[in-house]
Model the fold of this input.
Amino acid sequence: MAEENYSLEIESNPNNLITVEEFVNYFAKDIGIPEARMNGLMLSVTEATTNAIKHANKCDESKRVKINVKVEDGKVIISVIDEGVGFDPLRIPDPTEPENLLKDSGR
Done:
């Protein structure tokens, strides 16, 4: 299989998630992702993009989110790139601790 690349860049507005869903549907169909895998793929990409829009870019429409998809050697590699500051993952509470299991976010 030849290497294939797909890319989408959006403003940091949650309303643009519809465009992200259309993009996922397009590239998934184009590369032959089975229907049984679509829900997980869609959830993963939209959740990562939502986090980039809301938490990294703070819904600042002057900041962009870029989604890159690379298909190579039977693997699909998806990158979601934002313009946020970043964080230290060692300072995040352990999501597997009992007091964190039922939280709405941060897992």
